[in-house]
Amino acid sequence: MVFLSALCYTVEIEKYTAFTEKRNIMSTTEEKRESIPNSVNRMLFAGIGVILQVAWICWLAIKLNDYSTAIQVCTSVLAFLITLRIYGLHINSAYKISWIILILLFPVFGLTIYLLFGRAGAVSVMRKRFNSNLALLRSYHAPLLAQRRALPYPDRTARNHAHYLQTQAGYPAYDNTDVTFYGDTCAALEAQKEALRSAEHFIFMEYHAIEDSIAWQGIEDILAERAAAGVEVRVFYDDMGSIGFVDTAFAKKLQQRGIQCRVFNPIVPVLNVFMNNRDHRKITVIDGQVGYTGGYNLADEYFNLTHPYGRWKDSGVRLEGDAVRNLTLIFLEMWGTTQKEMPAIEPYLPAIRYTAREAATVLPYADNPLDDKRVGEDVYLNFINSAQRYVYITTPYLILSDEMQRALVLAAQRGVDVRIITPGIPDKKLIFSVTRSYYAQLAAGGVQIYEYTPGFIHAKQFVADDKAAAVGTINLDYRSLYLHFENGCWFCGCQAVQDVRADFEALFPQCENVTPQYSGQRSLALRGVQCVFRLFSPLM
Fold first, then answer.
1. Domain ranges of the chain
2. Quick one: 123-162+173-361 is in which CATH superfamily?
């Protein structure tokens, strides 16, 4: 795979040399991304440990097959039966095909990897704990769901969007909430710090990645100050997401400063089938009155304090009012997974002391990989399928299911202006090559593809027809849509929708429309390599 990655990237560079040179003139990468040595060493040690354990299991299975013909036959029969089982599952077809081919091509290795990482039942312990917590939290949603279905939506399309999220995801919609959209993460960070300073009762913060550097240190000092004043402060971060940014002493430091800190799914050098499922959510809640979410983590590169991939573009939203309740409960979902018993909930659901300026409908929601629902993907599909004039999309990674590709092309073919913005400078070259492999089919179907030439675009946002928008953490790739814990915010009937649209209009002139370059024929070598990448992309 490493060889194929290098080959694919080389072919891409050769094909678009002029385009790349133009981009480099416009913007260059200023410095390499810094990493915490101890943290990186821990990741390498854990990775080597897991690889050795998987290799040992595979070696043992191969030796047993060689030792006995009967065992070899049993392995082949088992591989066949498992592929039939996978084929019958109600999951994404591309995901099924990837596993089936891997198992049939390499029975011993494929079976080993699937039994360890591919089975839904492999995370049954975590699923039981999470679902138990979720059921308790949903009981706080239930009384509101019936009431909120009668909200005055601007049109039937918006009502249908909210109806799906309320009935299938279980999150109520709210009015009496104001939404502020931030297309500039520096502005979002300053507003967020100001809100943190005003906290009187509690602060909840959940992030995929936290870097113990400039951006975070300003936040940490505020958190320590509020904790000293008697405010309850909780910080929750994903170990894998933060592993290049902080070491194991980080959580201890926060505890010493009066900040409760927990780490989700710590990386250890022991085979752990749940290791593949990460917490990708980004949430801040202050006193249950103010909330923040969006694409940005709390690391320097997200605020252009460093530039490992050129200029970083991200976005987020601020919620003030009733809808913050959903963000509070979403945070408690994950916080509760780190202990056997769910902590008290009622103290963190105060009566909202707020009167909204706009008649918005706001619905923060979450998605998790432990059930059979695909909330994140379905929200995006609803945007695409219901669009009448336009749908604009930003995503850092574009690894699409057949359903998503078909929906995008069909929308374009019925006359909808479909535009997707992806990065111009990648943070992961392999994933960037896979992303580009989808361009040709989309371009042939009428979808317009733009690359953000100044650098890396990390924002995850949808807007359609000036009616509704969604901003959150969910990328258009298999990892976000099927493997990670994610969250987002859907809203309509407010100025923030127009602000998201304006953000897109400001982005397009900074992008290169690469649609014409991918509308023609690609070389046989490039198509072959990209097919291999796409075949196994659901497993990346």
1. 2-29+374-539, 37-122, 123-162+173-361
2. Endonuclease Chain A (3.30.870.10)
Bigger pLDDT: 416 or 76?
416
Tokens representing 69 are 């013909």
Q: How far apart (Å, rounded) are the C-alpha atoms in residues 426 and 411?
A: 27
Cα separation of 452 and 394, whole Å? 10
Residues 6+ away with beta carbon under 8 Å from 343? 332, 335, 336
Q: What is the mean pLDDT of residues 199-228?
A: 97
Instruction: Name which CATH class applies to 2-29+374-539.
Output: alpha beta
How far the first Cα of the chain sits from its last, in Å, is: 11
CB 173 within 8 A of CB 322: no
**439 Cβ neighbours under 8 A, 6+ residues apart:** 449, 514, 515, 518
Please indicate, yes or no, whether the overall pTM of this predicted structure exceeds 0.90: no
Q: Cα separation of 215 and 211, whole Å?
A: 8
Handedness of CA 525, 527, 533, 536 (dihedral sign): negative
Mean pLDDT of the chain: 85
Q: Nearest-CA neighbor of 155 among 431, 311, 361?
A: 361
Which residues, at least 6 apart from 312, have a Cβ–Cβ distance to it below 8 Å? Answer: 185, 301, 302, 303, 304, 455, 456, 458
